[in-house]
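Box 3.1 A note on notation
Throughout this textbook, protein chains are presented in two layers. The first layer is the amino acid sequence; the second is a token string describing backbone geometry. Keep the layers aligned when reading.
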Amino acid sequence: MSVILKSGKTKNIAFPVTVSTEFTKDTLVYVDTTVGTIKPATSSVAGNVIAGVIRQTIASTDDNYADAREVLIEVPVEKNVIYEMDVTASLATTDVFKYLDLTDAGTVNPAASTYDIAFCTKYLSTTKGEFVLNIGAESLGVIGA
């Protein structure tokens, strides 16, 4: 389960982390707009609040686990940044050029298409593909945001 940058420009931006929350390295995070901190993405998080990819693990055994702090998040800064991602259900060549949902913060679910977070650009295997993330304001059709 991981989100690996394949091509495109990104930038590391500091975001406040939700205290006492575990994060897995190389997975998607979203901004909980009710509290203004990041949390691990889930299958039911809309694309407009997904911020990007956390590149570090945060575990309950960390010294600063319960501290309010900021962490760096890799954020795409141009359109069509491509990520390699794991897939939970069997990816097929017919899934290329389709929008798919997440299973969790690090995997794509080809069997679902409600939130349309991952646009499949390349079939690699039944368990891996390349995707453009449909995240941020433009995922809602907001141009120039």
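Residues 70 and 79 are 26 Å apart (CA to CA). The longest strand covers residues 118-125.
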